[in-house]
Backbone:
């Protein structure tokens, strides 16, 4: 097999494509012949040693991939050789093969597109866990999605709409805002040209959003929280903008609001049955056409440098998928 190996924490520019020994699955594990893998923001952080999970060096980055099971370890009963799966692991996806815990592999129904499969579990799993579990989103509520044109943002828009919510999508350009409208957002805010607080006040008749979905952090966080509705829930997904905001503690008090942490990776590990139920509902919604990954572009696995460069420049609408040769 071959894979992109990370031997330092100098970032994605230090990755090297090289041959490696074929891994063998242990008890409770499967090996996947990878067809497609998608790029997520934590994939960059982990190569810089900045992610919550710090694997020992060297390692193969890539947290989300799809392919065909080609070996099964002892004790695995629900998966078999030849079955197509989408898999989640903190590492391993940017190569031709990977071994993963069988409980972290999602069996795919016949006809599930493999490009969509590589862009599905991480972003949709994160957003479903955030909105439906941690945010307790109810039909009729209003959701503000920050960074709405990215991978988790586009997933959050579709999931919130499937749950019966009104969605306000905030993004950094008119083109990104149009994408959000195209996939179901009810209204958009280009926060580079208009005050986020003023726009939210106008769009919600002064009430504010019931749920704020924030994968970017940075300078918009306080403005969004100051706009939140009474009993609102502010979902902390990540910090793609780079800065970790420091909110004054009086703001949750004045709004009777909650700051809610969302760490989907640990949710998968700690609550596998709840995660399986969440992913099962998402697969049903996909079959019903309620959710579908927004794919920015598909690149060959060999072009991982371009993928990371665009991720770092925040020049992605939806997800970039890397594909191995057939």
Residues:
């Amino acid at each position: 097999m071959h894979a992109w190996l990370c031997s330092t924490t100098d970032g994605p520019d230090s990755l090297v494509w090289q041959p490696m020994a074929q891994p063998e699955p242990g008890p409770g594990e499967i090996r996947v012949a990878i067809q497609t893998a998608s790029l997520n923001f934590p994939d960059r952080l982990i190569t810089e040693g900045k992610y919550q999970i710090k694997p020992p060096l060297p390692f193969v980055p890539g947290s989300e991939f799809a392919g065909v099971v080609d070996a099964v370890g002892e004790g695995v009963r629900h998966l078999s050789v030849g079955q197509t799966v989408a898999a989640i692991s903190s590492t391993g996806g940017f190569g031709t093969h990977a071994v993963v815990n069988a409980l972290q592999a999602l069996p795919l129904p016949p006809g599930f597109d493999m490009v969509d499969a590589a862009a599905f579990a991480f972003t949709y799993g994160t957003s479903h866990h955030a909105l439906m579990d941690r945010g307790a989103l109810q039909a009729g509520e209003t959701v503000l999605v920050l960074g709405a044109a990215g991978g988790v943002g586009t997933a959050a828009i579709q999931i919130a709409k499937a749950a019966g919510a009104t969605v306000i999508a905030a993004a950094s350009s008119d083109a990104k805002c149009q994408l959000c409208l195209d996939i179901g957002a009810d209204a958009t805010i280009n926060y580079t040209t208009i005050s986020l607080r003023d726009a939210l006040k106008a769009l919600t008749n002064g009430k504010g959003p019931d749920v704020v979905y924030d994968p970017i952090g940075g300078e918009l966080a306080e403005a969004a929280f100051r706009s939140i509705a009474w009993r609102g829930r502010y979902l902390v997904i990540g910090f793609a903008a780079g800065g970790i905001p420091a909110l004054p503690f009086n703001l949750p008090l004045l709004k009777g609001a909650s700051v809610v942490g969302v760490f989907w990776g640990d949710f998968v590990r700690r609550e596998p049955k709840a995660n399986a139920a969440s992913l099962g509902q998402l697969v049903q919604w996909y079959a019903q056409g309620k959710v579908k990954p927004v794919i920015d572009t598909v690149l060959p696995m060999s072009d991982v440098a371009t993928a990371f460069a665009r991720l770092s420049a925040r020049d992605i609408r939806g997800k970039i998928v890397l594909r191995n040769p057939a």
Q: What stands out?
A: The longest helix spans residues 272-287. The first strand starts at residue 2 and ends at 5. The domain at 123-265 is CATH 3.40.50.720 (Rossmann fold). The two ends are 14 Å apart (CA to CA).
